[in-house]
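Morning, I've got a small favour to ask if you have a moment. I'm working through a protein record and want to make sense of it properly. The fold is given in discrete form, as structure tokens running alongside the sequence. Can you walk me through what the tokens say about the fold? Thanks so much in advance, here it is:
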Amino acid sequence: MEPTPLPEALRESQKRRRERILIILILIMVVSITSLEVYLVRQGGQPVTGSLLAFSLLNLNTILLFLLTFLIFRHLAKLFLERRRRVFGSRLRTRLVLTFISLTMLPTLFLFFMAWQLISSRVDFSWGRQVEEHLEQALEQRKAFSQGMEEKLRAYGRLFSLELEGQGRWTAADRDSWQAFLDKTRVAYHLSGLELLDPAGKPLTASYDPKAGELPRIPPPESDTGEMLQRQPFQGGELLTFLAPLKGPMGALQGYVAVRQFFPQPLAGAERSIQELRQMQLLLRPVKVSHFLTLVIVTLVAMFFATWLAFYMAREITTPIRQLAEGTLKVAGGDYDFQINQEGQESRDEIGFLVQSFNKMTQDLQISQAQLAAAYRELSQSHSLLEARKRDMEILLKNVAAGVISIDAGGRLTTINDSAAQMLNWRREEVLGTDCRELLPAGEFQRLAEVIAAARNSPRGTVETPLHVALPDQTLYLLIKPTVLKDEAGQDLGVVIVFEDLTELERAQRLAAWREVARSIAHEVKNPLTPIKLAAQRLRRRYLGRFEDDSQVFDECTQIIISQVDELKNLVNEFSRFARLPQLTLAPQDFNALVQETLLLYQEVHSRITLEFQPDPNLPPLLLDREQMKRVLLNLMDNALASIPDRGRITISLKGDAARETVALAVADTGSGIPGRDKARIFEPYFSTKRGGTGLGLAIVNSIVAEHHGQIRVEDNVPQGTRVVIEIPMIRGEYAGHAAGSG
């Protein structure tokens, strides 16, 4: 592309500037002349065709519009020739011009037709024959109403004169009775005024409607004997007054009674409106022609201005775009040294900035291309390495038995493997991205935060410590090892926590320790109990009858010793049974029948308690120690009965889970329940919530369930009470035939 010579560019720029000035002047003149025409039409009162000045202005407007049309079509012809010659950018310029013209002309023409319809219909509606007919009908109705009101006033006047003549009181002393009569009669007949006049027409007394105010004085009657109807203009309306004569006994004129009624709209106003409308109808066609020409001129001005603006905007847009398109082709071909020549056509708007940016871009492209290629190769290698490490890490986390979670610096959970989700009873999709403060109780989060703080303060950035974690449905004993993560700058990225579930191990160790303690207690305590009991019995046999005064005291004391020794023996026996649980004897058993058999022991004895059993008819035979499992049921039933103070319900249910190959035994009561702080220790030996309890019942139950490779948990019953759930494995397939044969 060869740069355009500077003189030619300047001449083209000056030519375009002259065209812009000429078009703007023409537009201003057209708008001014049109405004003057509209003003003359509104002020003149004669049709526009009859005004020589308006006709001259219209012709001048037409000449200016033709000149403007010539300039527009000149540009259209030039654009058409450029498209025929296939000048680069002419297609885009044509589309822009057509788009601008279409976007302007379509709504302009639409507005023109809509405005003309509205103006035409408005003029026809305001000055048309229909309005005249309505006014004439209103006038006829008004005349009929006025005639009716005149007849009504005549009748009222004659009636009132007869009443006043019949009373025959016309002295000054009777003025009060006249006033009362006038007030009462005016209100009763809804009149604007009622007056009594002397024979000369002077008012004697009157009664006026407060809304109408004091009415004007009645003109003197023209005749002193007959009736008379008068019309007076009043407050923009019309006041009707009917005078009826009052005759004395000898037929002499005594005065007049005046009946007065006010009408807001006189007949003369309606007649004037009709005359004015008929005069305006003579100007209907000239006015419509004037409005039509005004709309045409305004529409043409708007269309011509939009067309010229379309050419101008298209040229301003397409010229730099054409240069950019040529430069893009050069750059696409590998010519990174290409520069757009802006000499003589500098622009300070966004398109000019785009051209400058393009030139700068081509300067930087050659330098950045090599850097980009090297960076891409390095990034690809890093990405491949990271993807491989990510796959290895996911496989490792999925198959490792320990729980692994990661927490970012803001305390949000970012990673959790399957083992951790199973231990904590969390769903991965629900907890990922959640703040740990929302996942853990406040106390547990505080303890975890203290361990993480210890890891941050450790020189190695990690510590290992056991931790009890109390979750809503269980308490875990975990061995946790948090490791602090930091970047190259030493900034804290979060922490990775690896933990193992030692709950069952701790429970087994604690149970074994308690068994050893129970064995020692049973051995050490049981030996002296028998000599103590025998000595007390020997004292009773030998000395019970020798104490005359203190024989009762002696009897009570020795009896207490013997009874307490028996209670200690029972306690020691419980210790012994807990310490030396018999070896399990597993055999296929019908669990439904075993539960039903146990419930029979309680149904007659505890009639105040409702016992309900929900068996599982599809439950297969299970490998159980019948006596030990029966002992479990008895302990759970005794605890449930002890928690119900008066009346209540105990529900025992069996439910098999074929997918997990487990069966769940649930004992739910409606008793007082177990506090949340005691649920974690409820299966520990010598811990009891009952007064006088040994604390060994549920410990024995826990041991028996553990021997059956099962699990036991305590939870709240809904709406109240406690629910104990035992899960043990189902019998395997090879025992099914044996169970059927033994049955």
The first strand starts at residue 193 and ends at 197. The chain is about 60% helix and 15% strand. The first helix runs from residue 6 to 44. The two ends are 104 Å apart (CA to CA).
